[in-house]
Amino acid sequence: MAEQFQQRYQQQNQPQAHQMVKAATAVTAGGSLLVLSGLTLAGTVIALALATPLLVIFSPVLVPAAITVCLLIMGFLTSGGFGVAGISVLSWIYRYVTGKHPPGADQLDQARTKLASKAREMKDRA
């Protein structure tokens, strides 16, 4: 308890020069980041102003091309996702068949047992 009080006392009574250095560093870092963000904004506006006429002129070609590229990318990503899912399912089945007890095997065994018991009940009723 006394150590915490002493640390707080030291933090509150830091030399004024140390506090000034902290403030100057913060102002310098903040100011430089503000200048960089302003330059980035100005560059973006200038680039957009220069590129807009070209985009308007070439839009009948660029828009369908962009749509086609997006559809191709989505197709490849979907195909890859289904491939990974298929490989993981085949891996799970292999581990289950070889007896390595993959996650979820207990639930599958319970479901199989319930199905078998219900099938026997239905067979007995018929």
TrEMBL record:
Topological category with respect to the lipid bilayer: Multi-pass membrane protein
Transmembrane segments: 21-49, 61-94
Keyword Transmembrane: yes
Record keyword Repeat present: no
Main subcellular localisation: other
InterPro entries given in the database record: Oleosin
One Gene Ontology biological process: post-embryonic development
Keyword terms, alphabetized: Lipid droplet, Membrane, Transmembrane, Transmembrane helix
Subcellular location: Lipid droplet; Membrane
Domain of life of the organism encoding this protein: Eukaryota
Listed GO CC annotations: extracellular region; membrane; monolayer-surrounded lipid storage body
PANTHER family: OLEOSIN, OLEOSIN 18.5 KDA
Family the UniProt entry places it in: Belongs to the oleosin family.
Function as written in the Swiss-Prot or TrEMBL entry: May have a structural role to stabilize the lipid body during desiccation of the seed by preventing coalescence of the oil. Probably interacts with both lipid and phospholipid moieties of lipid bodies. May also provide recognition signals for specific lipase anchorage in lipolysis during seedling growth.
Name of the protein in question: Oleosin
